[in-house]
Amino acid sequence: MAAVTSTPSVPVTADQHTTVGASSTRGGSRVVIIGGGPGGYEAALVAAQLGAAVTVVERQGVGGSAVLTDVVPSKTLIATAEWMTLTESAGDLGIRPRGESDASFEADFATVDARVLRLARAQSRDIHAKLEREGVQVIDGTGRLASPAQVAVQTADGQQLTLDADVVLLATGARPRVIPTAQPDGERILNWTQLYELTEIPERLIVVGSGVTGAEFAGAYRGLGAEVVLVSSRDRVLPGEDSDAADLIEAVFKRRGMQVLSRSRAAAARRTETGVEVELTDGRVVTGSHCLIAVGGVPNTEDLGLAEAGVATTESGHIHTDRVSRTTVRGVYAAGDCTGVHALASVAAMQGRIAMWHALGDAVAPLDLSQVSANVFTAPEIATVGISEQQITSGEVRGEVVTLPLARNPRAKMLGIREGFIKLFSHRASGVVLGGVVVAPRASELIFPITLAISNRLTVDQVSNAFTVYPSLSGSIAEASRLLHDARG
Ligand SMILES: Cc1cc2nc3c(=O)[nH]c(=O)nc-3n(C[C@H](O)[C@H](O)[C@H](O)COP(=O)(O)OP(=O)(O)OC[C@H]3O[C@@H](n4cnc5c(N)ncnc54)[C@H](O)[C@@H]3O)c2cc1C
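Above are the sequence and the flavin-adenine dinucleotide SMILES. Below is the predicted complex in structure-token form.
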């Protein structure tokens, strides 16, 4: 890693308005980043490595929503829920309560939520410390473009600064979408950033929205012991996912006692004396103790001075970017959820890094979304990478599909795993691996060999010639590859 030869320093004086000039660094460029989530902080690390004077302006806390309200808290909560579901197959594996005592577990919700918040704050502190070690200046405040080469900052302690910049990166993320007739109150009607203030498990949680966020929370709270009603406007849950995977998860949800209301759109959510009621567009009313609204996000792009600076946005308010994260204004880049490219922390981070490599003249490959692996953290998990089966069945891609149920895998049998599958897609003529779906416990880990195969353009024969451990779940990936060789013949 290149040494940062001078630490950029932003003078915070008693002046109401301070203009900050260039700091002298090896790279010589002044980079100002608005937003300290994965898009912003990963970019900051790259820019510092390349010798730039880097300032991150962040109003909520380093790590951004990803660390403080979204990825880290949700996956920490889900970790507890996952342990609770593991006991489902205990009987099959010969585990029974000792004597007459009740050996079942319940989640101590206050402890669970305290752990969630503790972990998120600790992760934020770790990233803050890492940025400072690398010489990045972090300002606690709200930034906006004053011009393409200046960022105006209102600091948390009431000062106004103007930072001169050779490069600006906008990485301001997104926030939960609000349904006007279902305004969150933070007590009974909640968005996902407000969940962790609860000290008791909701008795009956109505989750509005069955996309990834809604499905993950619905599954987790059911696992933790809440009654859950999932309100889904579509035919099935997880409409954006592989249809076999989504069907399987819906069946698992129902088996665990979740009520799934398909083709049901929420019109409004209201507090009642004892809880909350959700009115559906067809007039039905669902009652519960709490309601979680999970209907997607909107970009944080208002009040950023975009139009005045000439930065173009889409109708939805996302910032236009190209594959090297450039906006329509020279020297101004954007990364992450504010661009609407792909709402994943991993993609935000890559967009941010690419922006800095491009802006600071390092070698850079444009963003390639065909290699992004993604995971739905339900139990079991759904991991996907590459093309979808639908692209093959529609004729868009000339490919082959093999699906192997995990129930036939020897390791899965030993572990008591009955649900899940491995699906692999290859190119019909060349046998090159094009994509895959894994539905299994820890699918997020099992998808990696398929991602590696795709990014290295490996054929199914090359994958199947590699040794897998016997017995192992990954053995089914090799077996699916072998079957795809047969499909070619
Ligand atoms: C519940 C949930 C779970 C998720 N789980 C996953 C997951 O498991 N894996 C995954 O890859 N993705 C997950 N995501 C998506 C992921 O959280 C986002 O893609 C990621 O946070 C995007 O990073 P970002 O840097 O663009 O924005 P953010 O993480 O939102 O950070 C942007 C930061 O900018 C700050 N900011 C905004 N405007 C200003 C301003 N004017 N001045 C100063 N600061 C400002 C914000 O306060 C925020 O802190 C999840 C999302 C949700 C909602």
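The pocket of flavin-adenine dinucleotide is lined by residues 34-40, 57-60, 64-66, 70-71, 74-75, 142-144, 171-174, 192, 213, 300, 304, 336-337, 343-346, 348 (CB under 6 Å).
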